[in-house]
Design goal:
The protein is an alpha+beta fold and 412 residues long. The protein is built from 13 helices and 21 strands. Strands 1, 4, 5, 6, 8, 9, 10, 11 and 12 form a nine-stranded mixed β-sheet that branches. Strands 15-17-16-19-14-18 form a six-stranded antiparallel β-sheet, sandwiched between helices. β9 and β10 (178-183) form a beta hairpin. The chain is globular.
Length: 412
């Protein structure tokens, strides 16, 4: 893999906690605007330029121009400063006692184009178009791509040594996650990191497929505009944070049903038993939490049920067919409920596992009729799918904590 240090544009220490923000795509425009009203320095004013106005759409020219203007203003006024020398950075997040530490660097567009940076999700053209315009108008990549690599002993030792030093940032985000950042201590360290990545055969996109595709397409546009480019220009690389597999945990991505396609509760339970797996009412207090692959929880009519998938469904010919999310889709959601495309069907909604199972119960009291609690996809399953060049079912991985925006900016 090609991974190189870069001169990050980043906030001064005293502003870091105020500037850092959750990714633009995990909240609505209204939610982002409410945050910005309380915190004028939030990076959401750049990531979501429309919140600087009333009644302006996210893809309005004014939104992108406001984002670029705001970024220039923060640099001009000294809130943000550019690193004097190209560096790697180390970014640790601690949530609920679990730490994940990534290496922040610039990944190569060519590695994505050649398939060495592997994806597992489809992207939407409208979402790509938004971020392409954002990158090109701001002349910067503002949201890091969440990458995964198989554990490497050399990188592990470097990270351990570097994170024993004094951090440049150490604060808690509004979500209660500890965010700590170190800058590499020497050019020798940077060279050692780049050399170690050269021996890594593949990187995997965990989160940020749209941001990656947009960065790559913006890069290709830049190449077309600069036919004499030599490959060393910053637009040939994109902002990333790479984590070892052993640091990460995938949370489940649960399903909420707004319709049973005309079935009664009893008829739906019968269909679940026939098409998906053995159903058993959960008699204990609280919600039923799936604890193993090929099991799920069903909340229906104010009660929880466990579902153990039929053995005949577990023998898929490829990694995708063996995923719980695919088994659910192919054997229940599509044939029984008529939900053939969960990305576009408004009869289904999704809830990241961070919200908990009580959220599913609350939604079923408001606007849904049933909920399905899933067992989380494993990192091994994700890698198997990506290595096979396959695409996972939509909404089948939820990574937490989210990488904050506004901590590192890669100017192109």
């Amino acid at each position: 893999m090609q991974m190189k240090p870069f001169k990050a544009l980043r906030p001064k220490r005293e502003y870091a906690a105020k500037c850092a923000a959750l990714p633009y795509d995990v909240m609505s425009s209204a939610e982002a605007k409410e945050i910005a009203q309380k915190n004028p320095l939030t990076f959401l004013r750049i990531d979501r330029g429309e919140i600087n106005f009333d009644g302006v759409a996210f893809n309005d020219d004014k939104a992108y121009e406001a984002a670029a203007s705001r970024l220039q203003e923060l640099e001009k006024t000294g809130v943000y400063e550019e690193e004097a020398q190209a560096k790697f950075y180390f970014y640790r997040q601690v949530m609920n006692g679990r730490a994940q530490t990534g290496i922040v660097g610039a990944a190569a567009v060519d590695d994505y184009l050649s398939g060495k940076i592997k994806k597992h999700e489809l992207t939407r053209a409208d979402k790509e178009a938004d971020r392409i315009r954002h990158v090109k108008t701001c002349s910067a990549q503002t949201g890091p791509i969440f990458l995964v690599y198989k554990d490497d002993e050399t990188l592990k030792k470097i990270v351990e040594a570097e994170t024993a030093n004094e951090p440049v940032y150490d604060f808690y985000s509004d979500e209660g996650v500890r965010q700590t950042v170190w800058v590499s201590s020497s050019k020798q360290t940077d060279e050692a990191i780049a050399a170690a990545f050269e021996k890594i055969p593949a990187l995997y996109i965990a989160d940020g497929h749209h941001r990656t595709a947009s960065a790559v397409k913006a890069s290709l546009d830049k190449r077309a505009e600069n036919p004499d480019y030599d490959g060393t220009e910053e637009f040939n690389y994109f902002l990333s944070v790479s984590f070892p597999v052993s640091d990460l945990e995938i949370l489940p991505y649960n399903r909420l049903l707004k319709s049973l396609n005309g079935l009664t509760d009893e008829e739906f339970l019968t269909a679940v038993e026939k098409n998906l797996g053995a159903v058993c009412r959960y008699e204990r207090a609280g919600a039923y939490t799936p604890t193993a692959r090929h099991t799920a929880g069903l909340y229906l009519g104010g009660a929880w049920y466990s579902v153990k998938f039929h053995e005949r469904l577990l023998k898929g010919e490829n990694p995708v067919a063996r995923l719980d999310y695919e088994i659910l889709q192919k054997n229940l959601l599509s044939p029984v409920l008529g939900i053939d495309d969960p990305r576009t069907d408004n009869r289904i909604d999704f809830a990241g596992g961070i919200r908990g199972l009580s959220y599913l119960e609350e939604r079923c009291k408001k606007d849904c009729v049933a909920a399905i609690a899933m067992h989380a996809t494993s990192l091994e399953e994700l890698i198997d799918v990506a290595d096979g060049g396959e695409i996972m079912p939509p909404k089948s991985t939820w990574f937490e904590p989210k990488l904050l925006s506004g901590v590192f900016i890669h100017k192109i």
